[in-house]
Amino acid sequence: MTSLTYTDGVPAIDHHSHAGYVRPGEELEGIDALERENAAGHVEANLPVGVFDEFVAARGRGDRDELARLDAAHGIERLFDESIRFQSTSVHGVSLVEGSRALYGELGHDEIVRMSRDRRRAGFAGLYGQALDISGTAAVLTDLPWIDADAWTPERYKPIGRIDPYLYPFGHPAFRRRGSDTPRFRRVFATVLEGLLKTAGLDAPPATLGEYVAFVRDSIIRRQESGFVGLKIASAYVRSLDFRRRSRDEAEAAYAALRSDPASLETPAYTALADYLVFAIAELAVERELPVQIHTGMGHAEPGLLLSGADPRNLEPLLSDPALNRLRIILIHGGYPYTSLLPALSQAHGNVFLDYSWMPYLHHHALERMLQEWLELLPADRVMFGTDTGQPEFHVASTARGRLALDRALTAGVADRLWTTSQAEWLASRVLNENLCRVYGLEKP
Q: Is there a contact between 387 and 399 (Cβ–Cβ < 8 Å)?
């Protein structure tokens, strides 16, 4: 990569990460698991629907005999290998190589797979700390249900809690589309809610909406007091972002119907209850001064998320609600392919901020063009850097590429006499750390 002018040496704070997210009992794997994860869409598109569902189920059970049978019959491993080769020219594939070399040196693929696996198992937090040091990252905001504060120190890893588990206390309608991504998010939401209920001494959602809202409020406040610095909405993976304010009477009727009759999940009650809870939690976030991140735009490399539902224009009823004018909202991931809509929403709403997490290891030229567009339109306090990764290899590469894209956008702006060099230096600091610190009330590095 080329040398940097404005961002070199400026400490970064990663606005959106998943660092420290290790599921209970999870066996840590090397970078080959990351390659395979991004290959799932290709595999799904080349198998009968039923076969792919059998494969996902067998993988979830760890049934090696069934996986071997399915591979022998359908060439599943060949499809994974083929997809990984096709990915090698994508920014995702290139970034994984770049980050791996930065951490492990110029080694062959098999040796890097072994080292990345062994280093994780020997001390994942230590490996991630090395990635932060290499990339000049002072801290990360990390999206996860809970965190081991002894291993992942609060000074460097500041947790963000998803509100989505609270929104669906009785589950979801039957899934009738392609892919396993949306069902996976549904399972994660349900598992996290189960844990939060148990923490509150509950085995199931309580009998009434009032009791449930009281549980949600207490749970979020407890998490904030334990160190969580913000909230997140990832519901674009399971439904549209078109959240509408609902009356208490409508929500109470929906809660009662869903609690008593699972068939009600197939009715408007499912949406009505989630809508009500989104606004109730958003009002609590205003009260508690908790910023809220919202996933917008494309999803993972497998069918699941409906792009039309993740269109940021769906958020206009939420953004324009008078009770939420002081809610600090950050639209994350650059909203690709809706990147020009995000700054329009931010320009019209002074409490709406943008980050470009995920984009540094999925987009290259598009990210540079997007930053030029955002920074020339918006006030200097609106844009934040992020990576959206829980993997040290991607963190190193994403931070390097995120800095490079920002530097090139600033360099072009100076060349075109949009900014002086001192203004470009100021913008570099604002994007890499100062805007985040102001929104979340954190000390600057």
A: yes
Give the DSSP letter string of 104-157. Answer: H-S--HHHHHHHHHHHHHHHHHHHHHHHHHHHTEEEEEEE-S---TTTS-TTTE
User: pLDDT confidence of 112, banded at 50, 70, 90?
Assistant: very high
Contact 241, 294 (CB under 8 A): yes
**To the nearest whole number, what is the mean pLDDT of the chain?**
96
Cα 341 from chain centroid? 19
d(CA 191, CA 92): 29
Do 286 and 220 contact (CB within 8 A), yes or no?
Answer: no
Cα gap 341→434, rounded to integer Å: 24
Of 191, 194, 199, residue with least CA distance to 221: 199
| Whether pTM exceeds 0.90 | yes
pLDDT at 24 over 70: no
C-alpha torsion sign, points 46, 48, 51, 55: positive
- The model's pLDDT over 118-136, given as tens digits with 9 standing for 90+, comes to 999 999 999 999 999 999 9
Mean predicted confidence (pLDDT) in 324-350? 97
- The tokens describing 63, both together, are 């049934």
